Amino acid sequence: MSRLRGPLVLAGVVLVLVAAWQGAIMAFDVPAYLLPTPAGTFSRLVVARGMIAIQTWHTLETAAAGLLAALVLAVGLASAFAASPLLTRSTLPLVIALRTAPLVAVAPVITLVVGRGFATGVIVVVVASFFPIMVNCLRGLTAIDRNAHELIHVLGASRWQALRLLRFPSSLPFLFAGLRVAAGSAILGAMLAEWLTGYRGLGLMILESADLRDVELLWSAIIVATALALSVFWATAAAERSIVHWRDHA
């Protein structure tokens, strides 16, 4: 029963949302060109499942590549900041300033420099998702147990050994917390790049469906994009449980 509890709760939430959707249409007499019925939307989703699956794969491909690149960049920067307080004081404010720039304003500049294609989406995903990973990883690298740090220092460990054996393992829970936040941002970043560049994916499908007034396909794509973001979040949480299992035992 404990294994079935999660799926049952999810199914219950979905049923409540579908009922609220249908109830809002009936209560407020929402026209079909604004909000189609759940039955019509899911029927369109089944009919167009092949096309939606292809576009979903393109969005997932861009998001995964960008999230992986963001992870490498964020861990590298966090490690450098943890090792050098001087570098942190001189560079971290610049990184924060760059992150505060609106992504909608940055994405067209990236398009002008890189062009309209896969690389643009990857860069937009990196910009959208690397900051929470870096901040949480830096927090984990610096929030180490003082006794353990003194012990490894007494044993004569080098800076690299201290990073590999103490700082990085203790930062994993923080790192995965940042990854869970960045997972949803990666999907949104990939779709934003598709909207702006016209590159294939769910973002382009939503844009074209709106232009063609195909609201059932539009809402089908929105539902799939939401499910994709949730799936990436759950996959990250599952990876955390698999890798950081020692934390639960502790």
General description of the model:
There is one protein chain. By secondary structure, the protein is mainly α. It has a domain at 37-135 and 181-245. Helices cover 87% and strands 0% of the residues. It is built from 11 helices and no strands. It has helices at 2-28, 38-47, 49-83, 85-100, 103-114, 118-142, 146-154, 159-197, 202-211, 215-243, 245-249. The longest helix is centred in the last third of the chain and has 39 residues, at 159-197. The radius of gyration is 22 Å and the shape is globular. The two termini are 26 Å apart. The mean pLDDT is 86.
Describe the structure using short key phrases:
single chain, 250 residues, mainly alpha, 11 helices, globular
Give me the secondary-structure topology.
Blueprint: H1 2-28, H2 38-47, H3 49-83, H4 85-100, H5 103-114, H6 118-142, H7 146-154, H8 159-197, H9 202-211, H10 215-243, H11 245-249
Helix pairs in contact: 2-10, 3-4, 3-6, 3-8, 5-6, 5-8, 6-8, 8-9, 8-10, 9-10
Structure described in brief:
87% of the residues lie in helices and 0% in strands. The protein has 250 residues and is mostly helical. It has a domain at 37-135 and 181-245.
